[in-house]
Write a structure and sequence with these properties.
Elements: H1 2-23, H2 26-32, E1 40-41, H3 43-50, H4 54-63, E2 70-72, E3 75-79, H5 80-91
Antiparallel strand pairs: 1-3, 2-3
Length: 92
């Protein structure tokens, strides 16, 4: 049983590291010793940040053309970093 729990812990650590790397948080978590949650904006905050209406963000999500969003349960959230990257891509 001890070997099984050790193997499972290793698999979980690898998966967490992979997901943090996908989110771009690997460096921050390694430096801090624990994963730091990204700053998440509500739909209204993201709309204010971009200077658009919340209805526009909903439409962009439906058309899959807007900034990437994250679902937290049933809530739509946006990372400020993703909004900045999307704006930079849109200018190009």
């Amino acid at each position: 049983m001890d070997e099984l729990s050790t193997a499972l812990r290793a698999i979980i650590r690898e998966e967490v590291a992979r997901q943090l790397a996908e989110l771009g948080l690997a460096e921050a978590s390694a430096a801090a010793g624990a994963p730091a949650p990204p700053h998440l904006l509500t739909l209204a905050e993201a709309a204010d940040y971009l200077g658009v209406k919340t209805k526009t963000l909903y439409e962009w999500r439906r058309l899959r053309k807007g900034p990437p969003a994250t679902l937290v349960g049933r809530l739509v959230k946006y990372r400020a970093v993703d909004l900045d990257a999307w704006l930079a891509e849109s200018r190009a």
